[in-house]
């Protein structure tokens, strides 16, 4: 609640800074301070201090799970500001507005991760996506950016329509938007077709937002066309937030119908992992490879929805943190390159040893090598899936795909360390370097002691 | 405490090595660290009868049901000893090889040592998995950075292979954990899995270990990787890393999945004997000495795998002794190959000849090592191979013990053929233009080879203390793996 109100206010504040403040450095400092403030007030709420006392229990519920995820999302956004804030200046001249939009997205993320009414879920998703349409097209003179924005808008509004339709059907059968009051299983263990249809429509639209195959077609073009800094934000924090909404929806709301949707989600996992990994293997551009790999990673995150047990909740938090941190770290370096192809990374270790090292640690985490947070994320997902006791072939399929993913992540490492080439990077400022080192340190420390993060769920 | 030091010393000194800028400093420091580790390992053997010094346990990842639990039992202690003795030998033997970015090279070497010792000592399945990967990553970087021409593609194949194997193993371990609720090895041994579960879990784990050893048909990464890696890394790979797989079979697979091993046991045995014959024949065709030794290693490891699944006491003891002996012998082989390559600039046997005339000391050492490689009596490998073959012959868990033993013995004979062929082509015969200018080996090379030959002869002539050391552990492994006993219960 604390962070929700403040993020909306800060969004407006950032819009006015665009008019009142002329220096970009000041704007950036205000944004970073604002995000840090959001993180602090959210942490206070996690520990029991509420700044505002509105009764929102009718349509939102802030529990430790949602608050901890919001903390992760805010922290990742803060790191994103620190490491990529400078890059945003190159996108266009409306520097403050980009920050304002991201604050609004943050507001949407908080809504999505703590909704209790389906309307709030819808509102949250829309508040997230509408600023994203703008950010995707923010490089106004670039045709690809325009294409990305338009594509995203068209596909996105289509899926929003589907989502509304689903919500309407659920409302029609239940007579309420409040998820706690819903009851899907009628006497005799039957469910009405109206509910099943509504649920499937919601499943499809959420899958679209989370770029799950076969609803992933927009992802590579949008991620590739958007300015790299915003791709990095879109592919990480936003995607993780959608998954939190996804798991809340299916675990809490449709939990009783799990026998109906579990197989569907299992099939989606297979399709997503397969398409994401196989296509990523054949990419020539690192940025596009990361776009497809983010689809593949979404396949792993979908395991949490599939399993919907305690291990899945914990795992999704770890996975969201590990995946977001590592991807932000890699994208920060990609944004510093003049050449996005694999060859462009040749010899980076010689010219920029620190950037190469941090990228390597982030990539190892994405590939799921032990001692990193990425490993624990994958580990929890596998664990959650094994604990369901069903479809073990799914788990084995997933690890085979994880081994394939090592292939394309390591191609970047190979290029950086074992090949020679000219220096294709702009270099990084001291602040960016410190932030990258901090990201890597967090990845490794949490990879060794996940309790540091997860204990906040219970204490 | 000693167990913990065995891991911490190489780990911390390895991390420190990265900071050293001077080549000599990094080299000397890592040799020093390796010797310290060796001394600790000797201390560990000395206090072997007081197990409280050799175990360490502390809280770690409690919410995963895992703890940092390490213990040096007989097999772990012996393999740690092998690792600890190998690294100083490797560093001294390759002393004059210079590397680009030496601090990274030696740092990664020591990190891989820490990972290897960790694998040998881990008594918690998740910890075991962690170390399993920790040993792999530095080796991956070592091979890709300092290897031969085709190193990147070859090492990558190696990496993806082993990574896939270890992930499958991870699924198996998580599944067993889901039944027991803890990653502790004792709980894993006591897990009450149905026969069907054991059967497919067997394959998940076996594939991981088979890739590492490697067992036919999972071996295709091995000759290329051995050939392309810098020799120091090849030594680590073949002398020590291979043992990770064998240890995995003995400590994790067999006692954990007794019924699975009993039902499926004939499959790995069959693969192993196919591998023995196949690798021996290919070894015979090789011209490159590195590739020859690589294939001979597949044959030797195949015999170990066969012996593991015979589930008899003599074979189990034989495998444990042979793990140590094979490490020592193949280390000796690589050192000789490395010396020859450094002296003459080639590893091709067809281009060499008459080296014995020019380097008699090298020739003497080589012949002892070669005889050990073909398991002649009085050498260390004889003890191991004899025990293993007799164990396979008397195996009660397979109906084909005799067939396997006969084919495996045939492999031993083939081993003699290709090893002696190499000895003849390289060391005997007339000198040619290339070998004409050869000189004998230097003092430190002699010292290293003397240590190896000494180890070969000591174990070969008086193996009793080693057999005694392994006896208790062999009994307990076989007791856990005993299906007939389980059925009665």
Notable features of this structure?
heterodimer, A: 459 residues, mainly alpha, 75% helix, 0% strand, globular, B: 489 residues, 2 domains, two-stranded antiparallel sheet, 76% helix
Main sheet characteristics of chain A = none
The chain pair forming the largest interface, with residue counts per chain, is: A-B, 30 and 28 residues
Rg over CA atoms of chain A: 21 Å
Supply the number of structural domains of chain A.
1
- Biggest β-sheet strands, sense, barrel of chain B: 2 strands, antiparallel
The string of secondary-structure elements of chain B, in order, is HHEEHHHHHHHHHHHHHHHHHHHH
Count of DSSP strands of chain B: 2
Low-pLDDT runs of chain A: none
Question: How many strands appear in the DSSP assignment of chain A?
Answer: 0
- Within the largest sheet of chain B, what's the order of strands? 1-2
Report how far the terminal alpha carbons of chain A are from each other: 19 Å
Percent in strands of chain B: under 5%
In short:
By secondary structure, chain A is an all-alpha fold. Chain A is built from 18 helices and no strands. Chain A has helices at about 1-20, 25-45, 65-90, 95-115, 120-135, 145-175, 195-210, 220-225, 230-255, 260-280, 285-305, 310-335, 350, 355-365, 375-390, 390-420, 430-450, 450-455.
Structure write-up:
The complex is a heterodimer of chains A (459) and B (489). In chain A, 75% of the residues lie in helices and 0% in strands. Chain A contains 18 helices and no strands. Chain A is globular, with a radius of gyration of 21 Å. Chain B folds into two domains: 1-256, no CATH class; 265-489, no CATH class. Chain B has a two-stranded antiparallel ribbon. In chain B, α2 runs antiparallel to α3 (74-93), α3 packs parallel to α14 and α10 crosses α21 (464-481).
